[in-house]
Design goal:
Helix content is 70%, strand content 0%. It is an all-alpha fold. Helix 2 crosses helix 5 and helix 2 runs antiparallel to helix 6. It holds the Pfam family DUF2165.
Length: 183
């Protein structure tokens, strides 16, 4: 019997189970997984669009062209394409880890336990997102290749959305989900 309603096993109780922290962690993991699946799918099926983005960022051809920075530019199409393919491979691996984590959350929620494996898989996938968009876009693209200087080929705002979502999900995944008193 619940203290607040006096009902036991009602549909109301079953509905409230959806409001738990593990469910929130599962939904956030699934949201990031879906996003990464779509990012990878888009880059694979529309290869040329973001290939141009990577080429321009690496070539630094729309930056301020400061001679003290331009030595960093990568103008070799082969190296640019290799970098882009590496990004896509990372996106696919990240999406796969997050889909697995979502599946593990779903299983753990049905069994009411075994949250540790789901939490660890989510953590791995979410850290992979942070590495891609934080280290990759902010650090390497934004700072090393001065992407922030480009008004045409600047992906920092887009990357920020992924970093914020992944970081928020990572925090929720690691919040303690123990029993709470309802005083």
């Amino acid at each position: 019997m619940t203290a607040d309603t006096g009902r036991t096993g009602t549909s109301y109780d079953r509905l409230l189970r959806w409001g738990t922290l593990p469910v929130a962690a599962a939904v956030l993991t699934g949201t990031v997984a879906l996003s990464m699946v779509l990012v990878a799918f888009g880059n694979i099926t529309n290869f040329g669009t973001n290939q141009q983005f990577v080429q321009h960022v690496l070539a630094m051809d729309t930056t301020f062209k400061d001679p003290q920075l331009m030595w960093r530019a990568i103008t070799s199409p082969a190296l640019q394409n290799a970098a882009y393919v590496a990004i896509i491979v990372w996106e696919v691996l990240t999406a796969a880890v997050l889909v697995l984590a979502t599946w593990l959350w779903a299983g753990a929620l049905r069994r009411r336990g075994a949250l540790d494996r789901a939490r660890r898989a989510s953590s791995l996938g979410l850290v992979m997102v942070l590495l891609l968009f934080g280290a990759g876009f902010f650090g390497i693209g934004g700072e090393w290749f001065a992407m922030w200087q480009s008004s045409d080929w600047n992906g920092l705002d887009s990357a920020l959305r992924y970093v914020v979502l992944a970081a928020f999900a990572l925090v929720v995944v690691h919040l303690p989900a123990g029993p709470r008193r309802s005083d």
